[in-house]
Amino acid sequence: MVYDIIKEKLREENEDREWGDGIKLTQFIAENKDELLEAYSCLMFAQKCAYNAEAKCHDINATFTTMDHKWMALCARTSTEGFYVGVRGNIEDLSEPKIFFTPKAEKFVKEVRHVEP
Prior knowledge:
- It contains 5 helices and 2 strands.
């Protein structure tokens, strides 16, 4: 949503320029920071919330992906097996619980606890 506003304004800025002579996104943002912030402030509260929730969801997923890699590396390095569950906030946060298993821990959960991970 905010990115769409920036893209549209950048497109307008570059429409009369030759291909390859356009202003780059980072330069455009630096030069038009105040105008972009004003455009953002004009968004309705619901639009801001939707954008922020989407950004938060992306950040959460990226963080858990990193945690998964670190968890698997730790288990391999220490010859341990295990799992962890990560949860955050409530349903409005758009972040479902994240569960990470090593192979033996997943087998344990399935066979002993009778839970399908």
